[in-house]
């Protein structure tokens, strides 16, 4: 079973990723707008993409990790100073973004809504 993690904010993300320095399993990271009190992200694109990502996750290697990262509220994300935008490891330009950590595989924006692309990222096929 895929091991799931959920963090909110840049500092919590960095702290969690420090735990994966020596991990050899595959790590997938999904970046999304933070959730409103309703439990739904403020980012409509993220809301549309997540069910596709969630469904495709069943195809991922059972020894892999999936990290759901809430990048912050809309003003935090839109700021040019947003640390997720400046971090060379994440290089976020849009949300949602789904990446294979430490690898070039990456889906951005509406690509995360395409079942075939998301499954390919999770399976290498």
Automatic annotation (TrEMBL):
Principal cellular location given in the protein's record: cytoplasm
A Pfam match: TXD17-like_Trx
Keyword Cytoplasm: yes
Bilayer-spanning residue ranges: none
Molecular functions (GO terms): DNA binding; protein-disulfide reductase [NAD(P)H] activity; zinc ion binding
Gene3D superfamilies from the UniProt entry: Glutaredoxin
GO CC term (a single one): cytosol
Domain (PARP-type): residue spans on this chain: 31-109
Keyword Acyltransferase: no
Annotated compartments: Cytoplasm
Record key words, sorted: Cytoplasm, Disulfide bond, Metal-binding, Redox-active center, Zinc
Family membership noted in the UniProt record: Belongs to the thioredoxin family.
Name under which the protein is recorded: Thioredoxin domain-containing protein 17
Organism: Aquatica leii
Lineage: Eukaryota, Metazoa, Ecdysozoa, Arthropoda, Hexapoda
């Amino acid at each position: 079973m895929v091991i799931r993690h959920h963090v909110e904010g840049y500092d919590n993300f960095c702290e969690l990723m420090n735990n994966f320095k020596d991990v050899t399993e595959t790590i997938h990271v999904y970046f999304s707008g933070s959730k409103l009190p309703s439990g739904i992200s403020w980012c409509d694109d993220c809301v549309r993409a997540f069910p596709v990502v969630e469904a495709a996750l069943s195809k991922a290697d059972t020894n892999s990790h999936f990290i759901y990262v809430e990048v912050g509220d809309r003003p935090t994300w839109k700021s040019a100073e947003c640390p997720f935008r400046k971090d060379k490891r994440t290089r976020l330009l849009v949300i949602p973004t789904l990446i294979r950590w430490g690898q070039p595989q990456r889906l951005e924006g509406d690509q995360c809504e395409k079942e075939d692309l998301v499954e390919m990222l999770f399976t290498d096929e």
